């Protein structure tokens, strides 16, 4: 068997025409060889590779644009290593920023150490719930998803991370309305891509369509704004991940449906309008 360094250099040369990053190759080796961090791949570069045949198979999958996170069934999110597969969206850095934004903004409206009731709509892998529950241990969080397959993945991560929550199956606020539940906080990273040409091929080919494409006639934002009063027991705080393309649309449906509210659009680290924070008194 070749050494790790030999296999990595050969794969890197082979993958250059496919624009595959060296990082992805290191991630594969890290996972296969049982290393904890990518730096271990470099530190142990002279070690004989024990999983060379598996690595070669995985490289072929990378060359077909399959995301490395699906290949190793793992994605990093705010220091957590979460299980992912094709049933859920791969957590992104922008969603890490959403969690950070909530942590910064929430104290303006609530005492964050209180027992607040929070709904996370469209939980997918469960990454937002895992991160929020870690920071706000007293919050009662109900992650939901319209797909049972996605909830099954989220439950793997809740068990793995020791996250105490109650997952619910259903569309937008429907599970809460059906149970006559009242909320303090609503958080969501719903589908927000309007045009397929805005997405990378790897996203289109491998990630779940139900978590990607937005229809202006029927979508999570619209449904929440139309129905929020049915779950509102007092003031309610809402935070969303969005696309810059839908800012005007969101202003329009907020004006049509919300009462006595204030809002703020917030840019991500790349300078794109990526988040919406809403507070209804």
Which terms would index this structure?
single chain, 281 residues, alpha/beta, Rossmann fold, 7-stranded mixed sheet, two-stranded antiparallel sheet, 12 helices, 9 strands, 18% strand, elongated
Tell me the layout of helices and strands:
Elements: H1 4-15, H2 22-33, H3 38-43, H4 52-63, H5 68-72, E1 75-77, E2 80-82, H6 93-105, E3 117-121, H7 127-135, E4 140-145, H8 148-161, E5 168-169, H9 174-178, E6 183-188, H10 201-206, H11 220-227, E7 232-241, H12 247-257, E8 261-267, E9 273-280
Parallel strand pairs: 3-4, 3-6, 4-5, 6-7
Antiparallel strand pairs: 1-2, 7-9, 8-9
Helix pairs in contact: 1-2, 2-4, 6-7, 11-12
Can you offer a commentary on this structure?
The relative contact order is 0.11. The chain has 12 helices and 9 strands. The strands form 2 sheets. Strands 5-4-3-6-7-9-8 form a 7-stranded mixed sheet. The protein has a two-stranded antiparallel ribbon with strand order 1-2. Helices cover 40% and strands 18% of the residues. The protein is elongated. Helix 2 packs antiparallel against helix 4. It is an alpha/beta fold and 281 residues long. The chain folds into 2 domains: 61 residues; 193 residues, 3-Layer(aba) Sandwich (Rossmann fold). The longest helix is centred in the middle third of the chain and has 14 residues.
Number of separate structural domains = 2
What does the overall shape look like?
elongated
Largest sheet: 7 strands, mixed
The span between the termini is: 65 Å
Level-1 CATH class name of the largest domain? Alpha Beta
Give me the CATH superfamily of the largest domain.
Vaccinia Virus protein VP39
Might you state the CATH topology name of the largest domain?
Answer: Rossmann fold
Structural class: alpha/beta
Strand order, largest beta sheet: 5-4-3-6-7-9-8
Taken as a percent bin, the fraction of beta residues is: 15-25%
Average residue-wise pLDDT = 95
What is the H-and-E element order? HHHHHEEHEHEHEHEHHEHEE
Which CATH architecture of the largest domain?
A: 3-Layer(aba) Sandwich
Work out the radius of gyration: 21 Å
Number of helices: 12
Outline the low-pLDDT stretches. none
């Amino acid at each position: 068997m070749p050494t790790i360094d030999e296999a990595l250099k050969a794969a890197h040369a082979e993958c250059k025409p496919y624009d595959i990053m060296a990082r992805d190759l290191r991630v594969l080796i890290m996972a296969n060889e049982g290393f904890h961090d990518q730096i271990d791949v470099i530190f142990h570069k002279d070690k004989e590779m024990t999983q060379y045949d598996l690595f070669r198979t995985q490289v072929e999958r990378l060359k077909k644009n399959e995301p490395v996170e699906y290949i190793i069934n793992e994605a990093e999110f705010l220091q957590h290593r979460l299980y992912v597969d094709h049933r859920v969206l791969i957590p992104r850095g922008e969603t890490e920023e959403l969690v950070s934004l909530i942590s910064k903004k929430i104290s303006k409206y609530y005492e964050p150490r209180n027992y607040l009731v929070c709904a996370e709509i469209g939980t997918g892998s469960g990454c937002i719930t895992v991160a929020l529950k870690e920071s706000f241990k007293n919050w009662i969080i109900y992650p939901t998803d319209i797909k049972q397959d996605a909830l099954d993945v989220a439950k793997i991560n809740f068990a793995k991370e020791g996250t105490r929550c109650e997952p619910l199956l259903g569309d937008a606020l429907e599970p809460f309305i059906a149970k006559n539940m009242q909320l303090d906080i609503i958080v969501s990273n719903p589908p927000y891509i309007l045009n397929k040409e805005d997405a990378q091929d790897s996203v289109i080919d491998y990630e779940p369509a139900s978590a990607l494409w937005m229809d202006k006639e029927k979508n999570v934002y619209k449904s929440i704004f139309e129905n929020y009063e049915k779950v509102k027991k007092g003031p309610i705080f809402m935070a969303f991940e969005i696309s810059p393309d839908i800012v005007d649309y969101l202003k329009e449906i907020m004006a049509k449906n919300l009462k006595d509210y204030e809002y703020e659009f917030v840019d991500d680290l790349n300078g794109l309008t990526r988040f919406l924070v809403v507070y209804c008194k």
